[in-house]
Each structure stands twice: as C-alpha cells, then as structure tokens.
Amino acid sequence: MSELLQAVTLRGQHASLVPLHPDHAAALADAARDGELWRLWYTVVPRPEGMAAEIERRLGLHAAGSMLPFAVLDAQGVPVGMTTYMNIDRVHRRVEIGSTWYARRVQRSALNTECKRMLLTHAFETLDCIAVEFRTHRLNTQSRRAIERLGAQLDGILRAHQRTADGSLRDTAVYSITAAEWPTIRQHLDHQLSRQR
User: Fold this and answer.
1) How many Å apart are CA 122 and CA 37, to the nearest integer?
2) What band does 44 get if pLDDT is binned at 50, 70 and 90?
3) How does DSSP classify residue 183?
4) CATH H-level superfamily of 3-196
C-alpha cells in the first residue's frame, strides 16, 4: 500500500485524528445530531441512522486506494466528526483534505485549526506532497471562510461540477496550498492556535 494511504494517528492538544473504525458509529451519530448537520443543503453530512453505512463507504474507498479516512476526537477523546485525505494522486503526490464535518459545539474552535495543521504537516513533511487541495460548494460561505483563514489560495470555480443529492448542480470552489507556501502557512496556523488557546 502506498504511504499516502497508510493509516496513522495524529495527536494534538485540542484534537486527535485516528483511523476511522466501525466502532465510532454511535458517537459520530451523536456528533451529527449536534446541529442537525445533515439538514444543511450545501454540504453532505450523514444522517445519524446512516452513520454506520457512511463509515463502511469511506473504509471501502480506503481499501480501493482513493481515501484515507479519520475520526476526529476532541481533547477528551470523544468522536466529534470526520475528515479525510481524498482524491489521492500517488504519481504527483497531491491530496485533497475533504469530506470534513464537525459537531456544532466544536465548529470555529481551535480543534478545526489544529486538525488542519496536523493534516497539512503530515501531507507536506511526511508524505512529501507538492500541494494539498480543499474543495467546497461555491455557496458554502462558512466553509470557504474557514479554508481562506488557513491561508489557502482560490484556484478557481468548477462550474456545474457535480449533482447534489437533490439533483441540483453544484459549483465547486477549489483552493490549494503548495509545498513552497507551507512554511509560511505553518507559521500562520501556529499564530492562530496561540490566539485560540
């Protein structure tokens, strides 16, 4: 298996990222209930009763070589969301950080900043990626602001890029951070974390 797909655990002060496992289903269903996240029309969060199936889907994509899924744990070790490396390009050493969601109680907190800091550090400093992408619905302003706060640059908008679950067309905003930009972005994220403590 490519090192880009090797299951790892990443630990910080506010959060830990652990390999996603079926045993996380009940706690992640509770996390999704915090804010009724599945009701948001511009993103895809599994319904509580569909959490086990979503975990199996992500684990299947890992087995197929296109995703490395994580459960996000808070400082107390409670699962509060999911994130992944996805659209993994082994040849050009690029990954996308995506399919991310968090319980409402930890949104806009140091937990998210630290999770992105850990994922970016691992991508650039261990996996030797040349770039890391972020993608979101063009109209998901909360997600776009969060990505921009990381220091990612907007590469462009993929118009009529995908069909959503309700059949409507999604325009996708594509952002990235390159390896050359990483030292400055890392300093920026460390500064943000020092202010969020």
Assistant:
1) 28
2) low
3) H
4) Gcn5-related N-acetyltransferase (GNAT) (3.40.630.30)
